[in-house]
Amino acid sequence: MDWLRHLVSYWADEFDWRAWERRLNSLSHFRSEDVHFVYRRAASGQRVPLILTHGWPGSFLDYVDVLPMLDEFDVVVPSLPGYGYSPRPPEVGINYRFVSERWHRLMSELGYSRYGAGGYDFGAGVTTILAQDHPQSVIGVHLTTLESDLTPVVDDAELSDVERSYLAVNRSWDSTERGYSAIQSTKPQTIGYGLNDSPAGLAAYVGEKWHSWSDVTPPDDFLCATLTLYWVTQTITSSMRDYWDNRWHPVGRAYIGTPTAFGVFAHQTVPEGEPPRSYLERVYNIRRWTVCPRGGHFAPVEEPAAVAADLTAFFRDLS
Predict the structure, then answer these.
(1) Other beta carbons less than 10 A from residue 62's beta carbon
(2) End-to-end CA distance of the chain
(3) Beta carbons of 70 and 300 less than 8 angstroms apart
(4) Can you tell me the distance from the alpha carbon of 53 to that of 124, in angstroms, rounded to the nearest whole number?
(5) All structural domains of the chain
(6) Are the C-beta atoms of 315 and 140 separated by less than 8 Å?
(7) Residue-wise pLDDT tens digits, 131-170
């Protein structure tokens, strides 16, 4: 309660959105098919096109600190449909596959026939389906979380002891943290109306996730920028529809043969477990596996230098 009071007070009395406007206006913003994206081209040399996708409850802001460290890439950072400056199409079925098709068309429009992709949370799901559906175009994928809808389906008898231990921690996390997902995958509109009507309610609901799922909670200034983006665009409800669409319009699971790197950032305040490499190898063609000493669910925000270094090393090795 004290933490929330402090965050709301900071947002109301100290937070400087104009400073964030100046920072964001220094980036190159574009729109294609109603998708907002930030685009940063490498200054020179042999460039690797790379599309990075955020998750919930985040935004394109999650990669702002990573961008300057990706000198070897032409980087595209879109806003997922229904988040911030990307309106959500007025239809059902806006799932991982719908978004990945948008992303593939976007990269094609930018002139890239071959490109890399990365992400976390919903962004990991979109990136996975992008590689599944367009293996001829996606040269490699880099993930920092395993998306729960796309985990391996394995009979318990086939699991190793370390995999069972991981899944036990993961189930414990589900029992204490997963309630939001049940609500958002069944009745996102109901809770959304309340959050769109109360800044304090929005701060409590979104802020609690950042507080519990991080290793060290990101600074108040960043959290308030994220809250402001959701508030001024009134997109918290449309962002939560990701859960409804992916539950009721699921995508098929398949092995991803595209070279894959996984950055393990398993230091959350409420532990979700450290996935064993063997567990992810049931789903992905793992080529790089990096266990990081710090950072949690929101790795691009919590540990931008580590994420940027791992991305760079992985795609440099591929090329």
Answers:
(1) 27
(2) 49
(3) no
(4) 7
(5) 2-318 (3.40.50.1820)
(6) yes
(7) 999 999 999 999 999 998 899 989 999 999 999 999 999 9
